[in-house]
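User: I'm putting together notes for a lab meeting next week and I want to include a structural view of one of the chains we've been expressing. I don't have a solved structure, so I'd like a prediction I can at least talk through. The sequence is below, exactly as it appears in our construct file.
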Amino acid sequence: MTLFNLSYAFLWAIIALQSYFIIQLGRKLQSKVQSEDAHHLIEEDHGIPQRALFPQFQFETVNKGFIDLQHLDKQKHGFLIAFTDATCSSCKELYPILERFHQQNPHFQSLILMIGQQPEVKEIINQYELTVPVTTIDTAASYETGIFPFVYYLSPKGEVIAKSVVQRRETLNALIARTVVPKAS
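Assistant: Thanks for the context. Below is the predicted structure for the 185-residue chain, given as structure tokens.
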């Protein structure tokens, strides 16, 4: 092997090694950005102020009958109230996420307040096979939101603990994580 061939092989080895380290660095940076985004709540200053009582506790649902949150407080760790609109395309991303959460976390009461006519709402319930109770509303103004999909997390007493626009499972997890109050040592 000549000196030229040896240097040429060495050069390609250096290029391959540099490429490997650049790819690894890029993966680390990407995972760091994703983990930071997952813990970020969107529009958390919007809506009913934190620690304020939610304005309504009784709901007539389309698919589960009458629900009174005050009578569930001893059984549940809290409530997730999601605001959606039947015509909102972004809201469609939330339905499977909220349904999965509802199935996997029976100690939380989930509820969807949806703007829309009852036939539209029933179609969405059927399309996404929702077991989460769904209530139709005319406007979300009395709940101090007009952003969809928007989720409030309420304490068992009905106080607003956390809130955010939720379109991804990671955001819902971050919302729930904000509700955990560390115990004093």
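A couple of points you could mention at the meeting. The helical segments are 3-38, 91-104, 118-127, 169-179. The first helix runs from residue 3 to 38.

User: Perfect, that's what I needed.
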